Prior knowledge:
Blueprint: H1 7-21, H2 28-39, E1 47-52, E2 58-62, H3 75-85, E3 94-100, H4 103-111, H5 113-133, E4 143-151, E5 157-166, E6 168-170, E7 177-179, H6 188-208, H7 224-236, E8 241-244, H8 250-258, E9 271-275, E10 278-285, E11 291-298, H9 299-307, E12 318-322, H10 329-340, H11 354-362, E13 376-382
Antiparallel strand pairs: 1-2, 1-13, 3-5, 3-8, 4-5, 4-12, 6-7, 9-10, 10-11
Helix pairs in contact: 1-2, 4-5, 5-6, 6-7
Amino acid sequence: xxxxLEVADIFRxxxxxxxxxxxxxxxxTERRVMAAIEACRTPVLGGHVEHCADCGLVRCAYNSxxxxxxxxxxxxxxxxxxDARQADLLPVPYFHVVFTxxxxxxxxxxxxxxxxxxxxxxxxxxxxRGVAADSRYLGAEIGAVAVLxxxxxxxxxxxxxxxxxxxxxxxxxxxxxxxCKPGFFLPVxxxxxxxxxxxxxxxxxxFVHDELRFPASIAGLADPAAxxxxxxxxxxxxxxxxxxxxxxxxxxVLGYLARYTHRVAIANGRLVGLANxxxxxxxxxxxxxxxxxxxxxxxxxFIRRFLQHTVPDGFHRIRHIGFLANRxxxxxxxxxxxxxxxxxxxxxxxxxxxxxxxxxxxxxxIDLCPYCGGRMLPYGTLQPCxxxxxxxxxxxx
Length: 397
């Protein structure tokens, strides 16, 4: 059932004015994302026509944009990804580790997304693997799945990584599985400092190799002395890294991952209203124990906050680390199961139609007529229909 209000509705109503006002600062990725969300499941993308064999109902079904930033296009993608990860689960405890960037780094990241987010992944992976390999802590090769999120509840820029990590790893001689201590993965303070130092070193190298840009809002950091001072300040503060207690069992891991892997900045279900050029949405105030509140923003500001969470084209928001890395995951997981005396994963189910998967996710069978329950049959295709021309903005001068 369609929500009463969607992000697409906000973009369609206020997007043209936003593009006009911010024409000089709106990048190609942001423009593409706006256009995709506006066109999603509309005649713009075309579709197909179905009819009911019993009552004759005719229904138009329009195509989805499949953009990873679209709140309507993630359910099936998430389900497919989770099914593929089912075979990766091991019969060990799993931990949830989160790496967060300080606010003074986030403002640099906003103007250097590809570079800074890549450094975030690299520093977190190196910190996890390095501390885990130290015999004082675990002394093993670990694996992890890392997912990039860039938002907080109020849609401010808040880059952080959610990492799901098996509680243990492969011994250096690859002859045994090294379990972590019960209920404890790695020392958080050690992990935090290692992450901080690695990130600062990589950020310094990016500056030296001229990989960063400094537009007007942070132009002062282009000066080497000012940038060095910023790095010195970052190296003196504690960075936020935390590790949650282990899950009750591997069965909970996939459900937990489903909450993080394909999430977008805000779900349509959180939108409350759109009136008088203002958007209202619910958010949780974690400073008050997660109390749910309603925030109201000007539509222009809501769109700005939403778009700052777009990621560059081709950038991978989900990455695999250590023995879960793509290049050797199958062989390493087979070794892990041998060391754990665990049975091999069951054979994957044959691919199913997306309609069947949607029925499993929503309980709705779109193959059936919503009125009489008859079978809906193909009736024809709908060619893409170009969107209407945007309004012509006149110069009042």
